[in-house]
Amino acid sequence: MSTHDFEKILQYRVTRNPLVACLSQITDWLETGEQGKTFVCANPHSLVTADSDPEFENCFEQADLVTPDGIGMVYASKILGGKINQRITGSDIFRGLSEKLNTGGGEGFSYFFLGSTDETLQKVEQKLAQDYPNIAFAGTYSPPYKAEFSEADNRAMIEAINAAKPDVLWVGMTAPKQEKWIFRNRDKLDVKFIGAIGAVFDFYVGNVKRSHPIFLKLGLEWLPRLLQEPRRLWRRNFVSSPLFLIKVFAQRFGLRNR
Questions:
Q1: Domains, the chain
Q2: Which pLDDT tens digit goes with each residue over 124-140?
Q3: Which residues lie across from 196 on neighbouring strands?
Q4: pLDDT of residue 108
Q5: pLDDT score of 168 more than 80
Q6: 48 within 8 A of 247, measured Cβ to Cβ
Q7: Chain CA centroid to CA 145, Å
Q8: Phi and psi of 11, rounded to 5°?
């Protein structure tokens, strides 16, 4: 990103470009054959978490594209006098890039999906063939469900991905696990573009329903999800979000040292 393409929220460089420009940038990376370009989403919860987790913080600082995922990021930009006026989610990037590659001369590019369950990955493969037939399906890998992967686990994932030789690797785990995995292993992967997209696999195949468009438009996508999964999401909405705003105001008034 050039200095004109992003603004700093806390100390993190978040793109101010609209979705169409982000998709064009990713397509350019794919077409020029650059290796290991990375995309991550920034939301209030993840940035608050990164503030006390140096490895997660490093993931945001090293990423080639960081998008504002969540209405809180748009509000933060306004508080800081920035120009971000649109949230860009992992779903937006996944669906937008898929549409672009499928219809805009991107024939021949291939996807690999890492994360989730074998059942969900099978559904992803079937739906991708229906929705985006011009995108080649390179493969999937469902990693073991554990807090930390062993060296053998990592080796198996890396070998499976490199054997498939995909252009795009979509990683769908939880944050910050997925981001840390990407940046620990990025240099070992023979992949042009890597996107950390969390629950998008489940959204895409309908395992988890996205909020009604009216909630999306109002910036309240979090509300129905909170009601569906209160134990998992209460901390994100009632602890991280207020703390994020405090940190943003501290930046606004020059009270942060970074």
A1: 7-205 (3.40.50.10700)
A2: 999 999 999 999 999 99
A3: 171
A4: 84
A5: yes
A6: yes
A7: 20
A8: -105, 10
Cα–Cα distance for residue pair 143/170, rounded to 1 Å: 13
Q: What is the pLDDT of residue 219?
A: 57
- Give 41-75 as a DSSP string: EE-HHHHHHHHT-HHHHHHHHH-SEEEE-SHHHHH
Which structure tokens are listed for 63?
A: 């990423």
The confidence score (pLDDT) of residue 20 equals: 96
Q: What is the average pLDDT score of the chain?
A: 89
Q: Could you give the CA distance from residue 35 to residue 33 in angstroms, rounded to a whole number? A: 6
**Mean pLDDT to the nearest integer, 155-165:** 98
Q: In whole angstroms, what is the distance from residue 115 CA to residue 131 CA?
A: 20
What's residue 106's pLDDT? 53
DSSP structure string for 213-256: HHHHHHT-THHHHHHHSHHHHHHIIIIIHHHHHHHHHHHHTT--
Task: Indicate the Cα dihedral angle 207, 30, 60, 242, nearest 10°.
Answer: -40
Task: Work out the number of other CB atoms within 10 angstroms of the CB of residue 126.
Answer: 12
Task: Read off the pLDDT of residues 201-210 as tens digits, 9 standing for 90 and up.
Answer: 999 999 876 5
Six token digits for residue 185: 């292993």
Q: How far apart are CA 107 and CA 175, in angstroms?
A: 31
Residues listed for the chain: 258
Q: Which long-range contacts (CB under 8 A, 24 or more apart) does 73-77 make?
A: 73/9, 73/14, 73/42, 73/43, 73/44, 74/219, 75/245, 76/9, 76/44, 76/244, 76/245, 76/248, 77/7, 77/9, 77/14, 77/16
pTM recorded for the entire structure? 0.90
DSSP characters for 162-184? HHH--SEEEEES-TTHHHHHHHH
